[in-house]
Each structure stands twice: as C-alpha cells, then as structure tokens.
Here is the input.
Amino acid sequence: MIYLVEHFFSIQGEGRYIGVPSIFLRFGGCNLRCPGFGQYEVEGEIVSGCDTIRAVDMAHFKKSWQRIDMLGSLTEIIEKYLEPLGYLPDIVLTGGEPMIYAEDTVFYALIEWLLERKFRITIETNATLAPPFEAYPAYRDVTFAMAVKLSNSGEPKERRVIPGVIRRLANEANGAFFKFTLDKDLIAGSGAREIDEICRVFTNEIYCMPLGDHIEQLRENAPDVAAFCLANGYRYSDRLHVRLWNREEKR
Ligand code: SF4
Here is the structure.
C-alpha cells in the first residue's frame, strides 16, 4: 500500500532533464525530516521540515494523501495525461522519498508497466535507501536523481549520507547523478568539503542548485551557487518551476 500526494504534468525544473515535459507522481512519506529547510504555518501551527512538507507530514496534510492499492489507479492517471499528447513525456517519481516503497507490489508493478511502454523514469531520491536490485531488477533501468542532503538540511550526517547506498545506486542503476541544494551560508562554510566527501564514492554528473522554494530565496542564493559551480567544476541547475511559477503547487 502506497500513498500518492499529488500528480501533475509540467516541465522538469531541476537537474539533468531540466526543461523536459514530465508527468510527476509525488508519493507521501519520507525516512528523513530535514528540519533545516524552513518553517511553515499549517492550520495555525508552525511545522518545520522539507520544502515539500505536504508530502512528508501526513498528520497535517492527510486530506491530500490518497491511499493506492491497485496499479490501475496510477496507470489511469498517466493515461489521462497522455490522451492529448502525441509523444511520451518523462515520468518523474518523487516525494517525499519514493524509495520507502521500493518493495511495494504496486510501486514495483508501476516501474515495470512504465518500462514496458518505453517511458524514461527518474526517481528523485535522498539516496539513503537502495532497492534490492537482485530481487527487483527493473530498477536497473531507472535513473536516480540522488539529492543527497547536506548539513543545511539539519539532519545528522549519519542519517543523510549513506555511502553504501550511493555506491549501489550509482553502480547498479541506469545513469544516476547527484543534485545538491546549497545556500549562501553553506557555500561560505563547509559546502565544498561536504560535496567532495560525498562524491568520492562516485564522481559522475554533479548538479548544484540554489536553496529556494520561493523566488526571492532562489534569487538570493543563485549567484553564489553559480560562482560555486564555476570554482569547483560542478554543473549549475536552476529551479525553473520556481522561476516560472514561484510557490504554485503542482508545478
Ligand atoms: S529528504 Fe527530501 S522529502 Fe525527505 S524530508 Fe528531506 S527534503 Fe523532504
């Protein structure tokens, strides 16, 4: 049994496939909390945590959490988006942390169904949970966008950086890449050292994005992140959806 929080059709806003038309399925639940990523007022209460808090905090957002027990509930959603299109968009499975469902029957059936139909699948993950590739080999044909959390997430290092998991995703899946979120303070402090340490395991494409779930914050951090990428040889990734639509949900 899995929880779907929302679905939408938009452009990919971040990372390797930035700009590519994509159907997004956002699943609820995460094994981390990332208290460093902001505070929000929800129903008069201050909650802290990630920039997709609605996909992590079931207690406050349970109205939008849809329990999914059958593959058909998900394929029906995808087929509706496809109806007016004459092409296959990308599929992005995001969260929350989708890999908490890696061994779920419905979730894995979705991966197989999508691959049979030749979709390119990206799973956006915090890279702390690897699927058992031997028992679930379809994950080898998925791209993992590994958004390993840095110290600005507020999570202790031993929870957010699991080198064995990063190594498995990097070596066993189809073209994993890194995606880090940085702000000015982290760049001025330990950002370069933290990324260097994490990427010793795997040095493929490394994207750095500005912290910013709204346009002002994005603008504030972006120039420093761009300069940081130039200085260190990393790839700058913007957050196009925030540039275009600011805080609108389902974008
Ligand atoms: S790992 Fe990602 S989804 Fe999970 S709490 Fe942190 S920012 Fe949110």
Q: What stands out?
A: Residues 215-232 form the longest helix (18 residues). The first strand starts at residue 2 and ends at 11. Residues 2-245 form a domain with the TIM Barrel fold (CATH 3.20.20.70).
